[in-house]
């Protein structure tokens, strides 16, 4: 059973930056494809970013491309999401995710979820 614990959320002004972290335990982290999703109030959970188990390939939602960067450190069992140029519409609970073996970049493609960390961007 994989456990994912996020941290790093908080309140930031528009244009600011935050770095989210997700520490994994209970499994072979280096073999997992990982990602981040977010869910804003009243909206469905949506894909944000994806990274392969080697860290060699990444993929982003159009809404965050060029502003967010996903990375991982397999020696620390940790995946990161660096968020720059934050906008009020980035306000959401951000969830760390470990994908199933056949990667599908939707919530149905996720095998394990963290409990989430809240990011609030003020205007």
Beta-strand content: over 45%
User: What is the terminal-to-terminal distance?
Assistant: 40 Å
Question: What is the element string, with H for helices and E for strands?
Answer: EEEEEEEEEEE
How many separate helices?
0
What is the number of E strands? 11
Question: Gyration radius, to the nearest Å?
Answer: 13 Å
Largest sheet: 7 strands, mixed
What fraction, in percent, of the residue positions are helical? under 10%
Report the average pLDDT across residues.
Answer: 95
Envelope shape: globular
* Low-pLDDT regions: none
> What's the oligomerization state?
single chain
Structural class: mainly beta
What does this structure look like?
The strands form two sheets. Strands 2, 4, 5, 6, 9, 10 and 11 form a seven-stranded mixed β-sheet that branches. β7 (68-73) and β8 (78-83) form a beta hairpin. By secondary structure, the chain is an all-beta fold. The chain is built from no helices and eleven strands. It has strands at residues 3-7, 10-13, 18-25, 34-39, 46-51, 58-60, 68-73, 78-83, 92-99, 110-113, 117-122. It is globular, with a radius of gyration of 13 Å. The N and C termini lie far apart (40 Å).
Task: Fill in the keyword field for this structure.
single chain, about 120 residues, mainly beta, seven-stranded mixed sheet, four-stranded antiparallel sheet, 11 strands
């Amino acid at each position: 059973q994989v456990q994912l614990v996020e941290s790093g959320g908080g309140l930031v002004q528009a244009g600011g930056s935050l770095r989210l972290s997700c520490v994994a335990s209970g499994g072979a982290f280096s073999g997992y494809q990982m990602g981040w999703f977010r869910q804003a109030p009243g909206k469905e959970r949506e894909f944000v970013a994806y990274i392969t188990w080697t860290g060699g390939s990444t993929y982003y939602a159009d809404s965050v491309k060029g502003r967010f960067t996903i990375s991982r450190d397999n020696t620390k069992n940790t995946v990161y999401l660096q968020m720059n140029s934050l906008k009020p519409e980035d306000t959401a609970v951000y969830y760390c995710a470990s994908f199933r073996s056949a990667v599908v970049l939707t919530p149905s493609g996720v095998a394990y979820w963290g409990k989430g960390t809240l990011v609030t961007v003020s205007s």
